[in-house]
Write a structure and sequence with these properties.
alpha/beta; FAD/NAD(P)-binding domain; Polyamine Oxidase, Chain A, domain 2; 3 domains; 7-stranded mixed beta sheet; 6-stranded mixed beta sheet; 15 helices; 22 strands; globular
Length: 422
């Protein structure tokens, strides 16, 4: 089959990194073509819609304090619906509220004597918050590159606050229970939690990539599976071959390594998300629930329809449950095990909960242990007209993916043969 010109820049992958790269290039007058293997944009941020229910593919949230989010997204249009600033922790057969004292002072005061950490722990969390807000991002990423687990013990937090709050909360953020993620990433994310609100777009997490893709649709081809890359020539599964002046690999890490075997692939963390339709919400507040018991399958759960009502019809509540890793049991057995745990939490009402869906995300998040974060190549430009971006090239966050896409576009615009419009 003949090779034909696709566009000056071919971008492989329509996740956040690829879409941000395309937006920056088109804003500067550079034509690009985005090749997406799946049936829609978003990469790992997708929302399925069925019978009036919104199913995010895995529990995810958006932090409004992310600088790249503020730069790239129209936040009023997203209509971010915030979570309560704190969490409910299941411990000792009861739920205990842990509240942000700056935003929920009365709840925080009432929880000072709860078994989720000591009074001294609460003071130390406040000091940590103040220190991080007062630090620049450059200072945060110059911190000693040790694991979060080491950092929490070095800060002299008690075992109760580590095991009952920090571990389940940040396990849900970083998708790993051992807290081996770099404390630099923890400090960055903790600061974002402190500075902004954390929530769900009113119409699901997919509203983020859909907004980024608006106006790019003629330049996005879905169902375009790239099987190989040779310099600036791309071959599709259909046999079609496209040629550009530059090619951007904007896929997740495993897919990038399949196309470029010489790349180093970071460890991937897996996660499972189960959804239930329930007649009445088990909790009224828009709050995250953590498993502080250090046993069981459930790491965290929430009721998305209590945060953003559009997630479910008015006569139904939608429950989301997160299980870390990828258990070997089949979906039905996993659902039954999770249901037994939920019954222990909420009683006989769980028998009326209708199981809806199970999402298993094998490569949900690239690992960022200290050595991995240190080893993340800062190189954006590869040989032979190739460029690379994605959350595995920056911080493993929504912000990191978007920053990486912008940096790839900037590198292209600095390349001979491409000129940014004034």
């Amino acid at each position: 089959m003949n090779v034909r010109g696709g566009a000056p820049v071919l971008i492989i992958g329509a996740g956040l990194a690829g879409l941000c790269c395309a937006r920056h290039l088109t804003d500067h007058g550079v034509e690009c073509l985005v090749l997406e293997a799946s049936d829609g944009v978003g990469g790992r941020i997708r929302t399925d819609r069925s019978d009036g229910v919104l199913f995010d593919r895995g529990f995810q949230v958006l932090q409004s304090a992310y600088l790249e989010v503020q730069r790239m997204l129209d936040m009023p249009t997203l209509d971010l619906r915030p979570f309560y600033s704190g969490a409910l922790v299941r411990y000792g057969g009861r739920f205990h509220k842990v509240a942000d004292p700056w935003r929920q002072p009365w709840d925080a005061l009432a929880g000072l004597l709860s078994p989720i950490g000591t009074f001294r722990d609460k003071i130390k969390i406040g000091r940590l918050r103040s220190r991080l807000i007062g630090s620049t991002l450059e200072e945060i990423f110059r911190q000693p590159n040790i694991s979060l687990n080491e950092a929490l013990h070095a800060e002299d937090f008690s075992p109760s606050i580590i095991e009952r709050f920090f571990r389940p909360f940040f396990s849900g953020v970083f998708l790993e229970r051992s807290l081996e993620t770099s404390r630099r990433l923890f400090d960055f994310v903790f600061r974002m939690f402190a500075q902004g609100s954390t929530g769900l777009p009113a119409n699901g997490m997919a509203a983020i990539p859909e907004q980024l893709a608006a106006g790019l649709e003629p330049r996005i081809r879905t169902g375009a599976i790239v099987t190989s890359v040779d310099g600036t020539e791309v071959t599709l599964a259909s046999g079609e071959r496209l040629m550009g002046k530059a090619v951007v690999i904007a896929t997740d890490a495993p897919a990038a390594v399949r196309l470029m075997p010489e790349l180093r692939s970071p460890l991937s963390h897996s996660v499972v998300c189960l959804y239930f339709a329930v007649p009445q919400p088990p909790i009224e507040e828009p709050i995250l629930i953590l498993n502080g018991e250090d046993q069981g399958l459930i790491n965290n759960m929430c009721v998305p329809s209590q945060i953003a009502p559009n997630y479910a019809p008015s006569d139904t509540a939608l429950v989301s449950v997160t299980v870390l890793g990828n258990p070997t049991t089949d979906d039905r057995s996993l659902e039954q095990s999770v249901r037994r745990e939920l019954t222990d939490w909420f009683g006989t009402q769980v028998a009326q909960w209708r199981y809806l869906r199970c999402y298993r995300i094998a490569h949900a998040l690239p690992g960022q242990q200290p050595e991995m974060l240190e080893a993340i190549p800062q190189t954006i430009r590869l040989p032979n007209g190739l460029f690379i971006c994605g959350d595995h090239r920056e911080t493993a966050t929504i912000n990191g993916a978007m920053v990486s896409g912008r940096k790839a576009a900037e590198a292209i615009l600095e390349t001979d043969g491409f000129r940014a419009s004034p």
